[in-house]
Amino acid sequence: MPTSHPIIAMPKPARAKPGMHYTVSIPKPTTHNFEVQVDLTRLNGLMVDLRIPAWTPGSYKIREFARNVSLFKASAGSRALRVERMDKDCWRIYLNGAKAVRVTYQCYAFELSVRTPHLDDSHGFFLPTNILPYIEGAIDTPSTLTI
Q1: Cα-to-chain-centroid distance, residue 44
Q2: Which residue ranges in the chain fall short of pLDDT 70?
Q3: CA–CA separation, 86 vs 72, rounded Å?
């Protein structure tokens, strides 16, 4: 005689959200470049896409802030990771098993406007939407910033 067994559905454990810590530094203000470091933690999957917004709330025009980004690199410890520019404001990082990644790049800032970043030897300012990326599909990722 067949025996029946109740089916018990086990919920999948919740995945921890990735973490992000931004560090913005100004080692040489006369070059008009902010140095940006992004430390990503608790990553899963084969890749992660980072995107810099193209506009700022309250400004009703596409600004293309990513045009100011240069020297975009990613690493896991001492190992360089492959980075591919997917479109004008998105970079794909191939994790190759890494759960924590450090991204570094420069952001040129020499347009004196309330909408864009600016840096010279007398002062500097930026809006996070101008120079800091977010994880595509996870814009609500908790983050911290050190300047």
Answers
A1: 15
A2: 1-15
A3: 13
